[in-house]
């Protein structure tokens, strides 16, 4: 198992404008590292730079302890799964799996055994003699996976491998890939634009936006303490609600553009130097008011309601835009209603309005299960 | 497709008429090849009896088997040469990035606009100075580089997903191994098409073999047939046509075989 280190890595196609810049990250051996970001943020380019399919124009890439900037892809000790699987259409499943071993001159008996073992692990034993076009999408995906695993390379790169599958199969393959990665202890670098995949699979996540790192951290850390408004709205569904607010320190108040006042816990605004900030709060922390809980409550006009059975998601007017709230259970709310909404202000994040920096962290939300039951 | 009956009727009548018009010369040649001289002079359409006299005569008068063998060697040689040269050139144009690649490609393609006859004289001098008159290489080599073939294969190679190339790179396949083990097998259909095209055009070639062959040693069958016509004062057309039919057979065979291969290749991807 090897680590991958990127030091000041940048990429430009025209030698003037960097499409990727200032990438500094160390991916630990055996780690499941997810690169996530919206389309065109440079995540695939970064993966291809690690693979050696794209030239690195600045900085250093280290694989293991060796500098790998100039190594050809085959010398980097890695395997790769492509978005469209890139199976050889003229070869059978078995030949596809052993293709790389064949090139590396692995003895024939050994090759056969490794192919069979891998095929069994992925449930492909019955399809070994078929051609790729005779397989379903999910099976093709597994062949591509088998081809990466069979090489026993210490590093595996995946470029949106699940994006062509339907929702159910995707959920299944998600856990399967995770299971195999843990079992073999491969260092995995996984590119996706799907934040659910990133949250559920990654040991650590890197969020990229227009070629720059936004935040690196464990999924929960990123969810609870997003480093800036971009991360806050990118991770989580529905996204975090954001609005510009005036700070009234003496009254410990935040005032939104439409005059809505939110009372913050006493003293929580003392250290804030700015007059105006961006308030961020996740939809699940906008709750139905409960008497005696002591949370600040404000009234708002509902604009849209979606009842999903186990939860009700509705939007309402707040500040200059709309906010979304997520309430457990089924609620009888009609668009146009004015309803009271309680805010768990302890869970609110504040961002600087100028540079988007996080200036007030939300309280930790993790719970543990004890013998007596769930404790808050 | 469903068609109303009158429409169908018109359609098939037209098709039949065009088929007859198109095929008439060959059918007539086939019939003449069984006729005797007097029969032919009377302008008959059907021979009185089907006998093989003319065929025996043509093999008697000419070293026809020898010519056929020469034609076969030359056609096969050109076919293989074209496949090798065109596929390698197309590979470079698709998979190897270099400065001015597109410009070089269009320059190469533009040679399609220069008729072959225009380059005949310089080609002839080259072959003559190399002392390659009356040799197989003189007959085949000038045709190896084919702009059309390179274009055809390039178009097919371009449909190969670039991920396949990248996957091969990650697996450690060198450029030539990728060419041989992935690109060629995947492009079988186009290679068969180009091969059939190359073989047939060379088989039917007349002018170039006429120029570079001065004796029977490597003379091809098309030139051989021409000799039948001029050898005697009155040409025995029955014998000539017998020769023509013999020459057509390999072409037809290849067409049938190639067509089957082609259809197989073309439908392979379409049906899951």
Automatic annotation (TrEMBL), chain A:
InterPro entries: AAA+_ATPase (IPR003593), ABC_transporter-like_ATP-bd (IPR003439), ABC_transporter-like_CS (IPR017871), ABC_transpr_MalK/UgpC-like (IPR047641), Mo/tungstate-bd_C_term_dom (IPR008995), NA-bd_OB-fold (IPR012340), OB_MalK-like (IPR040582), P-loop_NTPase (IPR027417). PROSITE patterns: ABC_TRANSPORTER_1, ABC_TRANSPORTER_2. Keywords: ATP-binding, Cell membrane, Membrane, Nucleotide-binding, Translocase, Transport. Pfam families: ABC_tran, OB_MalK. One of its GO terms (molecular function) is ABC-type transporter activity. This is sn-glycerol 3-phosphate transport system ATP-binding protein. GO terms for cellular component: ATP-binding cassette (ABC) transporter complex, substrate-binding subunit-containing. The keyword rRNA-binding does not apply. The keyword Transmembrane helix does not apply. Residues 4-235 form the ABC transporter domain. PANTHER family: MALTODEXTRIN IMPORT ATP-BINDING PROTEIN MSMX, TREHALOSE IMPORT ATP-BINDING PROTEIN SUGC.
UniProtKB/TrEMBL annotation, chain B:
This is sn-glycerol 3-phosphate transport system permease protein. InterPro entries: MetI-like, MetI-like_sf. The chain crosses the membrane at residues 9-31, 72-96, 103-127, 133-153, 189-208, 237-257. The lineage of its organism: Bacteria, Bacillati, Bacillota, Bacilli, Bacillales. Pfam families: BPD_transp_1 (PF00528). One of its GO terms (cellular component) is plasma membrane. Residues 68-258 form the ABC transmembrane type-1 domain. GO terms for biological process: transmembrane transport. It is a multi-pass membrane protein. Keywords: Cell membrane, Membrane, Transmembrane, Transmembrane helix, Transport. SUPFAM superfamilies: MetI-like. It is found in: Cell membrane. The keyword Transmembrane helix applies. The keyword Cell membrane applies. It comes from the Bacteria. Belongs to the binding-protein-dependent transport system permease family.
């Amino acid at each position: 198992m090897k680590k991958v280190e990127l030091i000041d890595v940048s990429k430009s196609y025209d030698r003037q404008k960097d499409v990727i810049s200032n990438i500094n990250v160390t991916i630990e051996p055996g780690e499941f590292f997810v690169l996530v970001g919206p389309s065109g943020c440079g995540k695939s380019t970064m993966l291809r730079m690690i693979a050696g399919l794209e030239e690195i124009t600045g900085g250093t890439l280290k694989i293991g302890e060796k500098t790998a900037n100039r190594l050809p892809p085959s010398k980097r000790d890695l395997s790769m799964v492509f978005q469209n699987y890139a199976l050889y259409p003229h070869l059978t499943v078995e030949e596809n799996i052993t293709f790389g071993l064949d090139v590396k001159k692995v003895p024939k008996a050994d090759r056969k055994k490794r192919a069979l073992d891998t095929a069994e692990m992925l449930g492909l034993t019955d399809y070994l003699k078929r051609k790729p076009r005779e397989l379903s999408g999910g099976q093709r995906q597994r062949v591509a996976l088998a081809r990466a695993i069979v090489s026993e390379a210490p590093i595996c790169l995946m470029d949106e491998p699940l994006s062509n599958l339907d929702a159910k199969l995707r959920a299944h393959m998600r856990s399967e890939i995770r299971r195999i990665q843990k079992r073999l202890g491969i260092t995995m670098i996984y590119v996706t634009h799907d934040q659910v995949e990133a949250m559920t699979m990654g040991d650590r996540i890197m969020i990229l936006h227009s070629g720059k790192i936004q935040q690196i951290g464990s999924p929960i850390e990123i969810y609870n303490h997003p480093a800036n408004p971009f991360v806050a709205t990118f991770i989580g569904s529905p996204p975090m609600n954001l609005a510009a607010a005036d700070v009234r320190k003496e009254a410990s108040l935040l005032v939104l553009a439409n005059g809505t006042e939110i009372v913050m816990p006493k003293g929580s605004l003392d250290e804030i130097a700015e007059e105006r900030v961006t308030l961020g709060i996740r939809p699940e922390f906008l709750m139905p008011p409960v008497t005696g809980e002591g949370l600040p409550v404000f009234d708002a006009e509902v604009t849209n309601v979606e009842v999903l059975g186990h939860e009700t998601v509705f939007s309402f007017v707040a500040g200059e835009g709309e906010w979304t709230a997520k309430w457990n259970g089924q609620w009888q709310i009609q668009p146009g209603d004015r309803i009271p909404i309680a805010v768990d202000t302890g869970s609110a994040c504040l961002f600087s309005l100028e540079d988007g920096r996080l200036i007030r962290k939300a309280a930790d939300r993790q719970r543990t299960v004890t013998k007596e039951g769930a404790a808050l | 497709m469903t068609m109303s009956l009158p429409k169908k009727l018109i359609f098939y009548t037209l098709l039949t008429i065009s088929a007859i018009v198109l095929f008439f010369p060959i059918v007539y040649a086939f019939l003449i090849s069984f006729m005797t001289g007097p029969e032919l002079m009377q302008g008959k359409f059907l021979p009185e009896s089907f006998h093989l006299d003319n065929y025996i005569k043509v093999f008697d008068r000419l070293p026809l088997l020898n010519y056929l063998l020469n034609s076969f060697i030359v056609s096969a040689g050109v076919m293989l040469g074209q496949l090798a040269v065109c596929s390698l050139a197309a590979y470079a144009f698709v998979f190897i990035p270099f400065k001015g690649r597109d410009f070089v490609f269009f320059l190469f393609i533009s040679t399609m606009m220069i008729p072959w006859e225009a380059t005949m004289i310089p080609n002839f001098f080259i072959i003559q100075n190399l002392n390659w008159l009356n040799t197989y290489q003189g007959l085949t080599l000038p045709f190896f580089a084919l702009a059309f073939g390179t274009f055809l294969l390039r178009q097919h190679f371009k449909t190969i997903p670039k991920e396949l190339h990248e996957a091969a790179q990650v697996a450690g396949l060198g450029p030539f191994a990728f060419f041989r083990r992935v690109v060629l097998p995947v492009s079988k259909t186009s290679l068969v098409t180009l091969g059939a095209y190359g073989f047939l055009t060379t088989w039917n070639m007349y002018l170039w073999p006429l120029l570079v062959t001065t004796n029977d040693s490597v003379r091809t069958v098309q030139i051989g047939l021409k000799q039948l016509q001029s050898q005697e004062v009155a040409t025995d057309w029955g014998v000539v046509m017998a020769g023509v039919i013999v020459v057509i057979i390999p072409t037809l065979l290849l067409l049938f075989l190639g067509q089957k291969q082609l259809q197989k290749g073309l439908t392979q991807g379409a049906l899951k």
